[in-house]
Amino acid sequence: MGKLQIRQIRLQEIAMPLKSAFETSFGVTTTRRVLIVQASDGNGFCGYGECTAMDRPFYNHETVDSAWMVICRFIVPLLKQAEVTSADDVGDALRAIQGNRMAVGAVETAIWDLESMELDSPLWKRLGGNREVIDCGVSIGLQSTTELLVEKVAREIASGYQRIKIKIKPGQDVDLVEAVRKEFPEITLSVDANAAYILERDLDLLKELDSYDLLMIEQPLATGALLAHAKLQSQLETPICLDESITSFEDAQQAIEMDACRIINVKLGRVGGHVSAKRIQEFAAGKGIPVWCGGMLETGIGRAHNIAMSTLPGFTLPGDVSASARYWETDITEPLVEVSPEGTIAVPAGPGIGYTVKEEGMEAITVRSETLSL
User: Fold this and answer.
1) Residue 181's closest CA among 194, 192, 171, 191?
2) Which domains does the chain have, with CATH numbers?
3) Binning pLDDT at 50, 70 and 90, where does residue 26 land?
């Protein structure tokens, strides 16, 4: 196989209704607008990536619409100018772009899949993964009552998930944790605040969470507040895990050196793709900091990339790579991503992401598309 040749980038926005609403501190999602990127070489091979941006700039500054524009106006022209011949080179070719990591990551991951398909090699092996089975946790959104939350936790435990994460926000926090921990004293439990708290106002409340034997408190404070997180971590026994704050290798390096966190959630889109994710997990492992794979309500394409990333050696905690059927009546890949009764996913052995994209099914739910030549 010669050098990688990218001839075409195709964008598709699809509409994916969730089986049930998913609520976090920044809103409720009932239907997921998803931007899918297809990279083709003109010789019959193609690869897929998924943009994890939401339709509103509440998780971070990116949206489906902004990512679409950035890919069309900036990413594709830069790739064309650079004449990229390896998936490893994509990050350097796009270095001039500031932020917009989800847009970059969507294209970069599609190109990794394309190159792996051309080489007839599983993506996870090309990334340097070392496990054929990954451990899975699950993320549970805010519920209307504590009783409903406890019932949902019970169902997920029965499904085998190895770690339960519940969303919290001001006014819905300690009481939820107390209820779940009382009912399930032995489970591995963590909470995720999605940046909803303020150190000066909420320090005493956050310190209360130390009483509940939590694996971690995820992103309690504002995205850019590394100093505030370091101050908070110094007063907590429970490890802080950073999510929204980590958008690059440099962010991870600073956070670890400042002791602003003791665990890192790596989201493939948020950090800009596979090369950045690999650098972060390597550095964190060298510092004794565990990482795990976070989720963004992905389709099977995004889940497949998350599975591949989760095989890397630094990913030592169960991630949020849950079964497709938890969220979707019908997914756009086959086979469906399934979790075993032991809370694991078998890593696919096929080339690329290892899952087949149902192109006809995806066309049926496509809202718009655009094809760009390189």
Assistant:
1) 191
2) 8-121+357-373 (3.30.390.10), 126-346 (3.20.20.120)
3) low
